[in-house]
Amino acid sequence: MYHKELKPFPQDFLWSASTSAYQVEGAWDEDGRGPIAIDLKKDLPEGTSDYKVAADQYHRYKEDIALMAELGFRAHRFSIAWSRIIPDGDGEINPKGIEYYHNFIDELLAQNIEPIVTMFHFDTPIALDEKGGWASRTTTDAFVRYAEVLFKEYGSKVKYWLTINEQNMMILHGHKLGIITTTSDDPDKELYQINHNMFLAQAKTMAMLHQMHPEAKIGPAPNISYVYPASSKPEDVIAADNYNAVRNWLYLDLAVRGEYNTLAWAYLEEHGWAPTIEEGDLEILKSARPDFIAFNYYNTTTMADAPLGGGASERSEDADQQIAEGEEGYFKAVSNPHLQMTDFGWEIDPVGMRMTYRAIWDRYRLPLIVTENGLGAFDQLTDDGRVHDDYRIEYLRKHLEQTQEAITDGVEILGYSPWTAIDVVSTHQGVAKRYGFIYVNRDEFDLKDLARYRKDSFFWYQQLIQTNELPP
Ligand code: BG6
User: Fold this and answer.
1) Pocket (CB within 6 angstroms of ligand 1)
2) ipTM of the complex
């Protein structure tokens, strides 16, 4: 297929950028916020900061939102910290936490920036972990109550809601990121029970929002990236298809169709990991429908056939959200020789993003919002008070070209919210791995003055939003 003319971005396209509470806010124990697992994690990867101060946005949100307005964001995706709203997860409501997000949302609205709220981004209150965490339905119920509080408080101000950030990555890589706690001696089985309980929480929440605020919209926010076969060898194609089911479609089939993906369910049964499904669960899952699909995209995965004895992955030791683990006997993760990598070893695949858009659209026919995409790099602040991040501009440009290709292909895309609006602390690679349009002046362990600086990408994105087209 050859397009001479690409379709333009829609006039009301939601140009945005993202953050998450524990990675940006800091103020970890202020104003009644309860602790989360990662606050107390002792074995953070060597040389990386904790999250106690992060970008200190809790104290500087007005300045940050003013910069976002100057850049021209039409929307901003951020997450609400459950443990600021209900410090122990299911007990007393914390008025200071409620107030903080009212102020934050009001500030965005005053600047004509549409809030896109993630309800849960990796930060389970630790008090719930101590009661069995997500493996227990106490947490499912607590989440639904938390959601009700959010909808009552902010439902008339917020039009776009996201339930759970990257549930699939919490299940596949949560241990590595220090964001999922399991206690049983069969952790994989427990993980898939956690998964099931999260699906129930999500379904109940989506149905509740529709009842409480019919005009508002809600969707899931998994990390979706298309899985390629390593070659046209039929066994490689089957391996890729199987991994697509386990990594991607399991999550979206449940969120959108309310049912377990057949291939993924067969995989779970074969391992003895199928969750316990209680009476009424399937009806709950079926009862909810999202209004859109939000997804995070960084790159694709490539899988080969994995005969026993052949290893699971070429890069098991590096495995994280974007470097697949593979599994001997099922799918072997291999590098894609056609792709370059970031400084942190993540493959870069803009065309794969077009493929991912098409695959999701073909399967579900729901409008899409990209809620993360971006380049983690070792940015340097220069003497002119700028960061010359032409590499980031290049990365974003290529992904947006492919987004325009996908729009031209007929995919309905509502918005683009790259990671991140402002530098945050990475999930496991510290402050040095920066993604923002706005630089935060701090190092791993030296907090300096935490001042904000505009990167070159700030001005590039500003121009793009003003003109609604990619700068020449
Ligand atoms: C996603 C998460 O997995 O990727 C974010 O939703 C995260 O929380 C982002 O920060 C980038 O990953 P990392 O590991 O570079 O911080």
Assistant:
1) 20, 23, 165-166, 169, 223, 296, 321, 372, 376, 419, 426-429, 433
2) 0.99
Assess if residue 281 is contained within a domain.
no
For a substitution probing ligand 1, which of 173, 225, 321 has the most ligand atoms within 8 Å of its CB? Answer: 321
Domain boundaries, position 432: 14-233+291-299+347-466
151 lies in some domain: yes
Given the residues 107, 153, 190, 372, the one annotated as active site? 372
Task: Report in angstroms the alpha-carbon separations of 421 from 23, 77, 90, 106.
Answer: 12, 9, 31, 18
Residues 6+ apart with CB under 8 A from 376: 342, 343, 344, 346, 426, 429, 433, 434, 435
Residue 99 is assigned to a structural domain of this protein: yes
Task: Look up residue 415 and give its amino acid.
Answer: G
Looking at residue 130, which CATH number applies to its domain?
A: 3.20.20.80
Q: How does pLDDT run across 55-100, given as a tens digit for each residue?
A: 999 999 999 999 999 999 999 999 999 999 999 999 999 999 999 9
Q: Tell me the pTM.
A: 0.97
The pick from 116, 372, 425 for probing ligand 1's pocket by mutation, whose C-beta has the most ligand atoms within 8 angstroms, reads 372
Strands 347-348 and 301-304: what pairing?
Answer: unpaired
Q: Let me know if 327 is a catalytic residue.
A: no
Does 374 map to a domain?
yes
Q: How many domains does the chain have?
A: 1
